[in-house]
Amino acid sequence: MSFNAADRPPMSGAAGGDLAVNQYDVYFSRQPMLDREGMLCGFELLPRVIDQRDDPEKPGRPGKALVSAFMARAVRGALTGHAAWLDVTRDFLFDDALLGLPPSRVMFELPPDIGSDPEVVSRLIQLHGRRYRFALDHVTEADESFAKLLPYVEAVKIDLNQIAPALLSKFASVLKAAGKILVAVGVESQADSDLAHELGFDRFQGYFFARPHKGARRASAPRQALLNLLQLLASEPTVAQLEGELKLNPVLVMHLMRLANSSSFGIGHKVTTLREAINATGTDRIARWTQLLLYADGRKVSLEDDPLLQLAATRARFMELAANQLSKARIAEQDAAFLAGVFSCVDAVFGGPLEATIDMLTLARPIRAAILNRDGVLGQLLSAAEALERADWTRLDEVCGQLAPLDAAAVAAIGLDAAEWAGMADRATEATGLERLDE
């Protein structure tokens, strides 16, 4: 994973010379989608389209602006190779600008109010011919519209909290028999996860994976080793002291060697000794790498497919980049912001009360206050990160009122840059996944 500083993110929406595009401000929230193994398998992109035209009564091209924004490099990077699930309106469905999106990269979500008239069905058939795929969103009942659209969709999304349990079970059974991909929305608790798994759902949306529960990634001996290493790093150790601590933990040595030999460092030759790896990587990067490894899944999985690690890494990088915009690149404040982000969901790793875990980490008072109470500028940045994750645009606007010059568009742009950074884990190394941290 590269820890090099990113360029300053754009402070506004889609750019370019096309007037039809520039008349709209378009930005996205990115929400994770997990498979039955709890690994990332896609992202829902929730767009916000703001009409900036002088005369909103005249016909516009919001669809073209949406496609232009979706095709931006930052969005492509933030998807980290995963599929995008994108909400569409009826107007956008019939806008030929939609054809500018590559079918292999997107699943279109049809809202409940899109209709099921012959025009809609005909359009779906036409787009099917171009290999576009569709999902029915927020299904709550088997009404006439549902029956008419079902043959043309590949997936069905069901909010677990918006449908009667008896009907949910029947829905799941019938739709699985019909070969549809079942997506459970609103998975926020252990009970939600257990129910959706039992009913055979294929995909899961919600932040259950970031909550403390019986499956929490609790502090095993290797995780305790990571904490010991973090404590040592906080004391400005010598290379010899670091080398001694790392030699006690072969798994950590393996990860450090892979990190040092990644192309992001541009050393020009293969690092072969632990001391050379320490010198090449630097204590700051080792500290960040160690903080993120606390979140790594116990199974052998790639870092970019691990939802909890990606959430923590994205938040941390978001906090750092956003603080840079506010503090005119004061390194200490950026470091504090990164720490507030990376440890903001650490209770999902260790279980138990968040306050007790934060105390164990002996974090500085402003970082502790930000995580526990959302106090101070760091707390406001954390609130902005959470609002963006939830696509809560009203809340994001409210928080940004205290974070000038950041506005919602700038926050969303920073979020995409942070997501891309988090998703670059192990891309340029020989690693195929994390070794089990519990062994």
What does it look like?
The chain is α/β, with parallel strands linked by helices and 439 residues long. Among the domains are: 19-210, EAL domain (TIM Barrel, Alpha-Beta Barrel); 221-294, no CATH class. It has helices at 19-22, 62-70, 73-78, 90-93, 118-128, 144-149, 165-177, 190-198, 221-233, 239-247, 250-260, 274-281, 283-293, 307-327, 331-342, 347-350, 354-360, 365-373, 376-389, 393-400, 408-422; strands at residues 24-34, 40-51, 83-87, 106-110, 133-136, 155-159, 181-185, 203-205. An eight-stranded mixed barrel has the order 1-2-3-4-5-6-7-8, surrounded by four helices. The radius of gyration is 23 Å and the shape is globular. The two termini are 23 Å apart.
Layout of strands and helices, then pairs:
Elements: H1 19-22, E1 24-34, E2 40-51, H2 62-70, H3 73-78, E3 83-87, H4 90-93, E4 106-110, H5 118-128, E5 133-136, H6 144-149, E6 155-159, H7 165-177, E7 181-185, H8 190-198, E8 203-205, H9 221-233, H10 239-247, H11 250-260, H12 274-281, H13 283-293, H14 307-327, H15 331-342, H16 347-350, H17 354-360, H18 365-373, H19 376-389, H20 393-400, H21 408-422
Parallel strand pairs: 2-3, 3-4, 4-5, 5-6, 6-7, 7-8
Antiparallel strand pairs: 1-2, 1-8
